[in-house]
């Protein structure tokens, strides 16, 4: 819920230009820096969970194939829907 | 950029293993949510500035729901399709696939409702989905700069992979990616327990 609060606040600020372009330009690299920081911290979390490492060989392979299946499934179903639905197809060509 | 992000995670894992003590885990969780808030704030500004996209969203209306719908169905069907080959019972595979990249939540739910092993599989599968999405989004957009790029991201297209989607696609697709991710994020807490009740 807090996530939505930050996001919606950002959208309102962006939509009504409540913060000057100058300030926004200075903060340009903030989103990418915070992404790198989050990913570093997420790595730490993985490193700190022994259960993730214990069975990583047998379980990791299963997990990888499930994720590949889900990704392929999502891509295929989206392709089908985009082909079927002209409005979405036109939209991506804009 | 994707390689930098993967390297960052690898460094984080090493640091989690050898540098930071496990007692820091709670702080790390807190820092991650703060970082996410900050990031979402800026992503929000970016979406808000693309007024054209917001206008178009009003025009297309409910049809936007077709995007998360196809991603959701594809995630579960795709997981079911590989379940036989990895010797995972179908409902367990469906529940893992329904995590759609939200590894913390799906991992915890399946650990609680089923087993630690399935929780770990869900965690790893959805971590892997997020990492693969980070790798795939720049590759997909290289060949076709279109909405297909948001499919691998699943629910993460509203937060962790949104900056990457924003970088490699248009503000309009970024806005759609957020809406799709937000709808999926709202569905996951219901879908994962729904599928695992049959296991």
Structural commentary:
The complex is a heterodimer of chains A (94) and B (199). Chain A has 94 residues and is an all-alpha fold. Helices cover 86% and strands 0% of the residues of chain A. Chain A is built from six helices and no strands. The mean pLDDT of chain A is 80. Chain B is an all-alpha fold. At the A-B interface, helix 1, helix 3, helix 5 and helix 6 of A face helix 1, helix 2, helix 3, helix 4 and helix 5 of B.
What's the helix and strand layout?
The complex is a heterodimer of chains A (94) and B (199).
Chain A: H1 2-15, H2 21-26, H3 30-48, H4 50-54, H5 56-84, H6 86-93
Helix pairs in contact in A: 5-6
Chain B: H1 2-18, H2 25-49, H3 51-60, H4 66-83, H5 90-97, H6 103-113, H7 116-143, H8 162-168, H9 171-196
Helix pairs in contact in B: 1-7, 3-9, 4-5, 4-9, 5-7, 5-9, 6-7, 6-9
The count of helical stretches of chain B stands at: 9
Number of strands of chain B: 0
H and E string of chain A: HHHHHH
**Secondary-structure element string of chain B:** HHHHHHHHH
User: How many β-strand stretches of chain A?
Assistant: 0
Low-pLDDT stretches of chain B are: none
**Basic shape of chain A:** flat
Record keyword descriptors for this entry.
heterodimer, A: 94 residues, mainly alpha, 6 helices, B: 199 residues
Question: Could you provide a short overview of the structure?
Answer:
Chain A is mostly helical and 94 residues long.
């Amino acid at each position: 819920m807090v996530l939505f609060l930050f996001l919606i606040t950002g959208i309102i600020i962006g939509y009504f230009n409540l913060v000057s372009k100058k300030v926004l330009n200075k903060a340009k690299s903030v989103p990418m820096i915070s992404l790198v920081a989050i990913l570093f911290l997420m790595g730490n979390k993985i490193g700190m969970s022994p259960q993730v490492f214990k069975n990583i060989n047998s379980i990791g392979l299963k997990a990888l194939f499930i994720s590949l299946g889900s990704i392929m499934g999502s891509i295929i179903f989206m392709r089908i829907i985009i082909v079927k639905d002209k409005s979405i197809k036109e939209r991506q060509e804009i | 950029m994707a390689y930098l992000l993967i390297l960052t995670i690898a460094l984080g894992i090493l640091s989690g293993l050898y540098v930071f003590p496990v007692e820091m885990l709670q702080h790390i969780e807190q820092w991650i949510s703060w970082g996410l808030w900050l990031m979402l704030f800026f992503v929000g500004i970016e979406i808000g500035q693309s007024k054209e996209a917001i206008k178009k969203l009003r025009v297309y209306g409910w049809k936007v729901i077709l995007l998360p719908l196809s991603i959701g169905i594809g995630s579960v069907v795709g997981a079911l399709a590989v379940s036989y080959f990895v010797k995972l019972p179908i409902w367990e595979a469906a529940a893992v696939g329904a995590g759609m990249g939200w590894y913390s939540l799906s991992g915890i739910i399946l650990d609680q409702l089923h087993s630690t092993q399935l929780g770990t599989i869900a965690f790893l599968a959805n971590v892997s989905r997020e990492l693969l999405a980070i790798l795939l989004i720049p590759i997909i957009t290289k060949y076709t700069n279109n909405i297909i790029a948001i499919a691998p991201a699943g629910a993460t297209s509203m937060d962790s992979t949104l900056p990457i989607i924003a970088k490699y696609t248009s503000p309009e697709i970024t806005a759609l990616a957020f809406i799709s991710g937000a709808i999926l994020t709202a569905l996951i807490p219901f879908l994962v327990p729904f599928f695992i009740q049959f296991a």
